[in-house]
């Protein structure tokens, strides 16, 4: 093939098609040479053309190749010293994936050639492999970015009005009876009318997709016949994973992803991506050489004092070095690309504490946060942190800066403890229910900083939370040693499946208790897909490698009663701003009314004092929520007025008689819901100071009339 090569430009990074050819660039500071390798088909075992890139501007290698079109397959070979003891792992026998690839055609085919050293050699990674990895590694794809968005706009739902639904692209539709088998498990299936109808009927405002960045299924899982289902092992931060494409691998996956976003936006549903910028799929010093490690190991990873080894704050073998300008640029370029080109609305950052580490400590004012706040596009997206990592001092709940929301692990733990009857202070329950002001208020953050959740992908489903005392991860092949052992769960009297009607009834009631508490709490509620209809993983609380019926949603086994209850809860929350306030409760009288915006009561109808909050044995309390004390204006600048509500929580196992408060709070109350029953009921009317029996382990909600 007669190929012309021009100098090209150092920016933008990656492969950029301009209609006449492609500009290729690669950041590799310590490299001594770079080859651009072009392939004709995905089945080619070696490149058809190898181009030595001669131009270098600062640390960026670049060239322009005319007449190349979208769909072109390519990779890089990078030259330099192979000196693991000094942190250098260059090996031109290894074809490398472009870190800025917008599409990747295929997946890793595990083979010893993917390792820069000779696997099994007594010198381990000090040995050197000359076996070509090209036949086994997927190739990057030049894409055509053109797409007709048809005036697509983000729903731009305010955080305080958001209902987040964490789901998996594949697992959500793999068993959906109304979606054709040939597209199940794909971006197209998530955009299907049946999917969108379900989400809108439920009341979801945002789907939070588990990782869709192109990822690698780990070799140890492959060797066991398992698969990385969750996808927290990224190798391409710009490429939508090809496994979820129904339309092709040569860039079609990009278009299909965009079609999905456009369809969801049209239905008023935002798209939030779970992103993994803390590490890559290349593992530790004995891991494969797929991209960054071979391009310039020292310029991408955190290395220890002995540069042969990696800092591991993630439990995966390596940690990307977000202190380095080129890594920060990679992360920011990736985020900006997904917002501007793919139209996503926000991000949930996996193990976000890792990104905030300067030398070793987690710093609130690290370079990562500084640059995020200065980015006009990225700073306006929804930014959600998983505020912990596995390193020392990594648990940072409540410590991220303004502008960030956090998965509130303390909310999860407290609400679980309360409903299973564990020793926990009522004061903490009140803090969590009202938005966790103890965590966020001092930093001028709002209740929306708290992403409230009972369950997530990592851990028990809601059904399993009330059905198992112990994890049951035998299918993972690790002798049930993996996964969290302290789950704050309770099986109700039998482990797993049971025919005991009393236990089944109790479990269903507990599900309603958890969901009701979640959707009546201040903050932003998040549920994991299937919890609303009783999805089970048979007690597996770490189903990361279960790409099968254990993880996939079983639509034929839906608990319709629970699903309708959940939809009604969401509708109630949306209709009443009392439950989704933008500002904190003040505990002060509302002007012109004389009643506080919030007041807490004992079952006897007496307001709680300081002493009552310190009891770890107390299980029963009530809260008055003043709908005239919201202290916020609507988007039209009008004062927000809502109904008053009275919520009675009884986590005790016996029925307790509650005395309603005096008539200054309300002369009449309408019973809205009772979790001891499965339906909403607005027929029962009560008078002030009436007695009302609240059954054991239940919530009763009253509305003032």
From TrEMBL:
The keyword Hydrolase applies. Belongs to the glycosyl hydrolase 13 family. Signal peptide: none annotated. Residues 473-494 are annotated as: Disordered. It comes from the Bacteria. GO terms for biological process: glycogen catabolic process. GO terms for molecular function: amylo-alpha-1,6-glucosidase activity. The gene is glgX. SUPFAM superfamilies: (Trans)glycosidases, E set domains, Glycosyl hydrolase domain. The keyword Cell division does not apply. Keywords: Glycosidase, Hydrolase. SMART domains: Aamy. The lineage of its organism: Bacteria, Pseudomonadati, Bacteroidota, Sphingobacteriia, Sphingobacteriales. Pfam families: Alpha-amylase, CBM_48. This is Glycogen debranching protein GlgX. Residues 166-573 form the Glycosyl hydrolase family 13 catalytic domain.
């Amino acid at each position: 093939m007669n190929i012309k090569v021009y100098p090209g430009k150092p920016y933008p990074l990656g492969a950029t098609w301009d209609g006449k050819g492609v500009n290729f660039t690669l950041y590799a500071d310590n490299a001594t040479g770079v080859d651009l390798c072009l392939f004709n088909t995905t089945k080619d075992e070696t490149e058809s053309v190898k181009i030595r890139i001669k131009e270098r501007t600062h640390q960026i290698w670049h060239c322009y190749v005319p007449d190349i079109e979208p769909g072109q397959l390519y990779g890089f070979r990078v030259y330099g010293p192979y000196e693991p003891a000094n942190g250098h792992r260059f090996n031109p026998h290894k074809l490398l994936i472009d870190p800025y690839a917008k599409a990747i055609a295929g997946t890793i085919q595990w083979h010893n050639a993917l390792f820069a050293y000779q696997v099994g050699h007594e010198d381990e990674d000090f040995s050197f492999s000359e076996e070509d990895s090209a036949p086994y590694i997927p190739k990057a794809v030049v894409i055509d970015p053109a797409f007709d968005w048809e005036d697509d706009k983000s729903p731009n739902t305010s955080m305080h009005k958001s209902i987040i639904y964490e789901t998996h692209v594949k697992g959500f539709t793999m068993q959906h009876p109304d979606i054709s088998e040939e597209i199940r498990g794909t971006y197209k299936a998530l955009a299907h009318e049946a999917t969108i109808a379900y989400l809108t009927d439920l009341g979801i405002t945002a789907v939070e997709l588990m990782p869709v960045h192109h990822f690698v299924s780990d070799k140890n899982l492959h060797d066991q016949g398992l698969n990385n289902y969750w996808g927290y092992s990224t190798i391409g931060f710009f490429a939508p994973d090809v496994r979820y494409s129904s339309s092709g691998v040569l860039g079609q996956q990009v278009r299909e992803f965009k079609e999905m976003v456009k369809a969801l936006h049209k239905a008023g549903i935002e798209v939030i991506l779970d992103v993994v910028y803390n590490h890559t799929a290349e593992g530790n010093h004995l891991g494969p050489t797929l991209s960054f490690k071979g391009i310039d190991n020292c310029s991408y990873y955190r290395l220890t004092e002995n540069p042969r080894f990696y800092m591991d704050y993630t439990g995966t073998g390596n940690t990307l070095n977000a202190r380095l300008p080129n890594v920060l640029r990679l992360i920011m370029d990736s985020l900006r690309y997904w917002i501007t080109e793919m139209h996503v609305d926000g991000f949930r950052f996996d193990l976000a504490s890792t990104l905030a580490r300067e030398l070793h400590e987690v710093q609130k004012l690290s370079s990562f946060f500084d640059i995020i706040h200065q980015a006009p596009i990225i700073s306006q997206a929804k930014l959600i942190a998983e505020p912990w990592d596995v390193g020392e001092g990594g648990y940072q709940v409540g410590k991220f800066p303004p502008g960030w929301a956090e998965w509130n692990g303390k909310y999860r733990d407290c609400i679980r403890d309360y409903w299973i009857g564990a020793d926990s202070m009522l004061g903490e329950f009140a803090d969590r229910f009202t938005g966790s002001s103890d965590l966020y208020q001092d930093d001028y953050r709002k209740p929306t900083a708290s992403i409230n959740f009972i369950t997530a992908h990592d851990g028990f489903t809601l059904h399993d939370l009330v059905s198992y005392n112990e994890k049951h991860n035998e299918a993972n092949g690790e002798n049930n040693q993996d996964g969290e052992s302290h789950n704050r769960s309770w099986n109700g009297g039998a482990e797993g499946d049971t025919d005991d009607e009393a236990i089944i009834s109790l479990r269903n009631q507990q599900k309603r208790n958890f969901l009701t508490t979640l959707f009546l709490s201040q903050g932003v509620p998040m549920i994991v897909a299937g919890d609303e209809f009783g999805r089970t993983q048979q007690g597996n609380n770490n189903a990361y490698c279960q790409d099968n019926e254990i993880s996939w949603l079983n639509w034929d086994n839906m608990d319709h009663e629970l699903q309708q209850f959940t939809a009604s809860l969401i509708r109630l929350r949306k209709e009443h701003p009392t439950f989704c306030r933008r500002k904190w409760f003040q505990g002060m009288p509302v002007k012109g009314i004389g009643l506080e915006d919030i007041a807490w009561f004992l079952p006897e109808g007496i307001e709680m004092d300081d002493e009552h909050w310190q009891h770890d044995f107390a299980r029963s309390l009530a809260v008055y929520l003043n709908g005239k004390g919201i202290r916020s204006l609507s988007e039209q600048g009008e004062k927000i007025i809502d109904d008053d509500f009275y919520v009675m929580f009884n986590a005790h196992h016996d029925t307790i008689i509650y005395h309603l408060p005096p008539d200054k709070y309300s002369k009449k109350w309408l019973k809205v819901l009772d979790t001891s029953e499965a339906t909403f009921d607005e027929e029962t009317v009560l008078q002030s100071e009436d007695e009302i029996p609240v059954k054991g382990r239940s919530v009763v909600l009253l509305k003032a009339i």
